[in-house]
Amino acid sequence: MTKKDKNDPLLLENQVCFPLYACARRVVNTYASLLKELDLTYTQYVTMMVMWEHEKISVKDLGAKLYLDSGTLTPVLKKLCALGVIRKYRDESDERVVIAEITEEGRKLREKALVIPQQICCKISNNSSGFTMDDAMQLKGLLLKLLGSVD
Fold first, then answer.
1. How far apart are the C-alpha atoms of 38 and 110, rounded to whole Å?
2. Distance in angstroms (rounded) separating the CA atoms of residues 34 and 67
3. Does residue 90 lie in a domain region?
4. Domain tally for the chain?
5. Which residue in 22, 45, 67, 93 has its CB near the most CB atoms, within 10 A?
6. Domain-located, residue 43
7. 119 within domain boundaries
8. Domain annotation covers residue 125
9. On the CB side of 133, how many CA atoms lie within 13 Å of its CA?
10. What angle do helix axes 70-83 and 59-66 make, rounded to 10 degrees?
11. What is the structure's pLDDT at 128?
């Protein structure tokens, strides 16, 4: 066995992307257990968050807000339509544009989802790691900065 070079750019421990990836997986899994009650996946949940904010939005703009391509977003929207929480239709003024619009059932789902952010905060901050809400806000800012730099 050879001695490893601590400066090796391919060592897993030297990667920024790996803890980001591992953390994202764990956080999404934490959400998944809470979202079962709403019958939503994490991707469907964040899609609904945009829908609750905008009520009606073009599918193109929705994909841009979520950083999702149409191949990923299409099945998510199909499932949300099947659940009856959104509806899709072509814009009357430009048939090339597809609109997603929240339904009354989707508005009701928002009321059930209101507890999710608080439950996540409790799970994250009530552990032995000492991760605080200030840490979370600082991390969010850094992640948004990183997201902007990799576009």
1. 10
2. 23
3. yes
4. 1
5. 45
6. yes
7. no
8. no
9. 5
10. 110
11. 66
Q: Which helix (H) or strand (E) holds 115?
A: none
| DSSP string for residues in 12-32 | GGG-SHHHHHHHHHHHHHHHH
Dihedral sign, Cα of residue 59, residue 64, residue 65, residue 66: positive
Structural domain for 100, as ranges: 14-114
Task: Give which of 85, 88, 136 is closest to 113, Cα–Cα.
Answer: 85
Question: Which SS3 state, helix, strand or coil, does residue 57 take?
Answer: strand
Helix axes 17-35, 42-54, angle to 10 degrees: 80
Residues 6+ apart with CB under 8 A from 50: 57, 62, 65, 66
Q: What was the pLDDT predicted at 133?
A: 82
Amino acid found at 12: L
pLDDT per residue, tens digit, the chain (151 aa), is 567 788 888 898 889 899 999 999 999 999 999 999 999 999 999 999 999 999 999 999 999 999 999 999 999 999 999 999 999 999 999 999 999 999 999 999 999 999 999 998 888 776 667 788 888 899 999 999 999 998 7
* Residues counted in the chain: 151
Position 115: which residue type? V
Residue found under tokens 């439950």: 119
What residues contact 70, with CB distance under 8 A and at least 6 apart? 59, 63
